[in-house]
Write a structure and sequence with these properties.
Elements lengths: L10 H18 L5 H13 L3 H9 L25
Helix pairs in contact: 1-2
Length: 83
Amino acid sequence: MKVDNEKRKGVSYLKRVADVNRIYQEWAKTGLSNREIWRRYIYPVYGISERTLYNMLKVDVTARKDNAASPRPLLLFDFDDNA
């Protein structure tokens, strides 16, 4: 359930997080330190701080942030012409 002070993350943010996680996983296997991965491969492309990198690594991109209780506008009416 969404808490009042918890922000909803947008789709573009989740895509960026997925890209950063993919780059990190790719280079972490080679044995590079977190700071080297950030400095060489992530900062030049995304321009994020090292702290933001660590926050992005904690985000689960597979879980959707939407829930069934969220409002769904424009789905209140049936616009079927056959009725």
